[in-house]
Design a protein that fits this description.
Largest sheet: 7 strands, antiparallel
CATH superfamily of the largest domain: P-loop containing nucleotide triphosphate hydrolases
Strand order of the largest sheet: 2-1-4-5-6-7-8
Order of helices and strands: EEEHEEEEEHHHEHEHEEEH
CATH topology of the largest domain: Rossmann fold
Strand content: 25-35%
Distance between the termini: 34 Å
InterPro entries: P-loop_NTPase (IPR027417)
Number of domains: 2
Radius of gyration: 19 Å
Number of strands: 13
Structural class: alpha/beta
Number of helices: 7
Length: about 260
């Protein structure tokens, strides 16, 4: 289960954004105006999944930042244990210049090329960390038992995630789209959906959410009458800054706007 997503200087997110999810909530809606950055949030999740699976990723540093290094982070729960993984990726050199994996505050391993810091709970792994190519994440290329165990956690979690954009489906009717959506509902899966309500009546979408058996469902929608949801988040663009905030945190975000 996703617990938190973090991003800075990546895609449209210049300042750090934190997308924190309540583990008791099964469905989370993301709203916001057109071109505010909702789809970029989905792209960010796709990039993190790609990193965990050692797939080709497409990351872009923020247009308004002079720094080519993107910062990404994820906190998730897998088999009743919580993990936080943060990376820094240089889009010019295509290098992972920083990695840090923690579990409840305990550092499992850390690679910081900028400050030449290499730390790991496993001494055998620690000896060889500085020799691994920086264009790779360590857990995919270090063949110690310690790193193989970490890789198993990351890969198993990432394979639970399904990311779909309904606008890319070649369907001729809302009914056909509904059938395809229902096929993705699975109690063992995490479902991320962009444009959930495109071409569907709000009552139908509310019914889908009511029927959802996915362990967790995060979706982008445009129709604010979709209310059958556990949590609501908003993406808002203010000049070159993009904010991501929950409905419960609106007052704090408004204060942030005033200060700027």
């Amino acid at each position: 289960m996703f617990l938190e997503l973090r991003a800075k200087k990546c895609f449209v997110f210049n300042n750090q954004i934190v997308f924190s999810l309540d583990p008791t909530n099964k469905t989370t809606a993301i709203y916001g105006p057109n071109n505010a950055g909702k789809t970029c949030l989905i792209k960010y999740i796709q990039a993190m999944k790609g990193i965990l699976l050692n797939q080709r990723i497409e990351l872009k540093s923020n247009l308004f930042s002079n720094d080519s290094v993107c910062e990404l982070g994820i906190t998730f729960e897998y088999e009743k244990k919580e993990y936080s993984y943060d990376v820094k990726y240089d889009t010019k050199t295509n290098q992972f210049v920083y990695e840090c994996l923690t579990s409840k505050g305990d550092v499992l391993y850390k690679k910081d090329l900028l400050n030449r810091i290499f730390d790991c709970k496993d001494e055998q792994t620690k000896k060889f960390m500085s020799y691994i190519a920086s264009d790779n994440v360590l857990f995919h290329f270090m063949d110690t038992k310690y790193m193989r165990d970490i890789k198993e956690i990351f890969v198993s979690f990432a394979k639970m995630i399904d990311i779909i954009n309904t606008n890319q489906w070649n369907v001729s009717s809302g009914a056909e789209k509904l059938i395809k959506l229902l096929k993705h509902l699975d109690p063992q899966r995490i479902l991320i959906v962009d444009n959930l309500d495109d071409g569907l009546d709000s009552e139908v979408v509310n019914k889908i959410l009511e029927m959802s058996t996915s362990s967790q469902m995060i979706f982008v929608a445009y129709n604010t009458s979709i209310l059958n949801c556990d949590d609501f988040w908003f993406v808002h663009r203010e000049n070159e800054n993009v904010y991501v905030y929950s409905f419960d945190n609106v007052d704090n975000v408004m204060e942030l706007y005033k200060r700027e």
